[in-house]
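Consider this record:
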Amino acid sequence: MTYQTKQKEMLLEYLKASEGNHLTAADVCEYFKSQGLPIGQSTVYRRLESLVSEGIIKKYTIDNQASACFEYVGEHSHHEGCCYHLKCEKCGKLFHLHCEEIEALEDHIGKEHEFSIDPVRTVFYGTCKDCNKGGCHD
């Protein structure tokens, strides 16, 4: 097994273990560094983009100020269809929002205002429950 294949397997294992979380390339690098397995940031980016192309992870670019986030979705995405996002302005975490109320609003806007919303790029900014309780550390 080549070193690069081993790196890809380790990356995939880490992403699987982090399923449901949004990770930046910097998060991935920091994790491997903390495990004593430093992997170069350019290598991490290449591997992540490769996994995006394979459909194993999804890439989210919310705005021009924040780094792209990646999320493991495996063979069957649990985000098919609508997927809105919540972004905490204190800690920067990104959360998926699946809510029938928001989907009803999207339907209303489409029918009554003839405007189509892109749910993947729709972000609600605010403060997450951990930061509201004072538990987040930037």
Q: What stands out?
A: The two ends are 39 Å apart (CA to CA).
